[in-house]
UniProtKB/TrEMBL annotation:
Keywords: Membrane, Signal, Transmembrane, Transmembrane helix. InterPro entries: 3D_dom, DUF348, G5_dom, Resuscitation_pf_RpfB, RlpA-like_sf. One of its GO terms (biological process) is peptidoglycan turnover. One of its GO terms (molecular function) is hydrolase activity, hydrolyzing O-glycosyl compounds. GO terms for cellular component: outer membrane. Residues 159-239 form the G5 domain. The chain crosses the membrane at residues 21-39. This is G5 domain-containing protein. Gene3D superfamilies: Resuscitation-promoting factor rpfb (2.20.230.10), RlpA-like domain (2.40.40.10).
Length: 353
């Protein structure tokens, strides 16, 4: 039996079919070796900065990661993409998302991000933030810590909602009061000739709000809508007309100046200092002696209790606010005596009457 098997084996080995089968098997082994060599790859995988070298027979990034038990979540970042084909010595970088708390306008949102900086995280999740009531504006809003700060797990980010509005307001333009002198009007008196009217202007402001509160207001433009009309006031320059009070009967008598004086009386005088004869004329114009430095000679004076008199005389004892009234007798002078606190009024100065 053994001899028959050996004889058969020898006959088959030497047959043409045996040679063909051997060749076929050799070709298959060679092809299998080529396929295995081409499918086998060495890649480097870096996860959150930690690098590992892997040998894999997988074809895509996703397959490689799954084969090693690495699950990629929605917010994780993978380079190259999960669908990318793998070649020998490729590098796969995975950055896992970390939680970040964002506070703005009284709301607090928990985000997961794999971005490098705070600013990048806010921009990447801007739609998610908006859907939850946080309307982040990268050009205006203030962020603390700053937008260039590196992301760390569980960090707190405060966003100040900054809003700039253009506001237009109407404001009044105050009128001015123009004062002009009027010689027909007495001193101390004023008359409004025409009333003033305020104008109007439209002022444009740039108003800045932070978290809804106004923090600054800057005028950027002003436009006059109506001009103001100035008021005109006339101011008197004429000396006021003054009347001597308590004169009794007779028409009102104007005066220029009032003096409070002491008064004595004299009589039997020949000629006055001005060369005229003194007179006493009740109801008319009598004669008085004065200090010319106080009452100019030739003035018309009204003396309380005596009447009108010409300042026509002087005297050695008549100095300052003292006057000496003339009577025709010593008895009348004694009756007059010396009077204090007497009112004397200059009615007209020399040349005015």
């Amino acid at each position: 039996m053994v001899e028959k098997f050996k004889a058969c084996k020898e006959n088959f080995s030497n047959s043409p079919n045996a040679k063909k089968l051997t060749l076929a098997i050799a070709v298959c082994l060679a092809l299998a070796t080529i396929v295995i060599v081409n499918v086998r790859k060495t890649v480097k995988v870096t996860i959150d900065g930690e690098e590992e070298t892997l040998v894999t027979y997988k074809g895509t990034v996703e397959e490689v990661l799954l084969s090693k038990g690495i699950e990629v979540k929605d917010k994780d970042k993978v380079e190259p993409s999960l669908e990318s084909k793998i070649d020998e010595n490729d590098k796969i970088i995975v950055k896992t998302a970390v939680p970040v708390n964002v506070k703005m306008s009284g709301k607090e949102i928990a985000l997961h991000t794999a971005e490098e900086t705070v600013g990048q995280a806010l921009e990447a999740d801007i739609e998610e933030l908006k859907s939850k009531g946080i309307d982040y504006n990268k050009d205006l809003d203030e962020v603390n810590p700053g937008v260039d700060t590196k992301i760390t797990p569980n960090m707190n980010v405060k966003v100040v909602d900054v809003e700039i509005k253009t506001v237009k307001e109407e404001k009044s333009i105050p009128y001015e009061t123009v004062v002009k002198n009027d010689s027909n009007l007495e001193k101390g008196k004023k008359v409004v000739k025409s009333e003033g009217t305020n104008g109007k202007k439209q002022v444009t402001y740039k108003v800045t709000y932070k978290d809804g509160k106004e923090v600054s207001k800057k005028e950027v433009q002003s436009k006059t809508l109506s001009k103001p009309v100035n008021a005109l006031v006339m101011q008197g320059t004429k000396n006021p007309v003054k009347y001597i009070p308590n004169r009794g009967s007779g028409s009102p008598l104007k005066y220029k100046k009032k003096l409070v004086v002491q008064s004595t009386a004299y009589a039997l005088h020949g000629t006055t200092a001005t060369g005229v004869k003194p007179v006493y004329n009740p109801g008319g114009i009598s004669t008085i002696a004065v200090d010319p430095r106080v009452i100019p000679l030739g003035s018309l004076v009204y003396v309380e209790g005596y009447g009108l008199a010409r300042a026509a005389d002087t005297g050695g004892a008549i100095k300052g606010n003292i006057i000496d009234v003339y009577f025709t007798s010593n008895e009348r002078c004694i009756q007059w005596g010396r009077r204090y606190g007497l009112n004397a009024y200059i009615v007209a100065y020399p040349g005015e009457w």
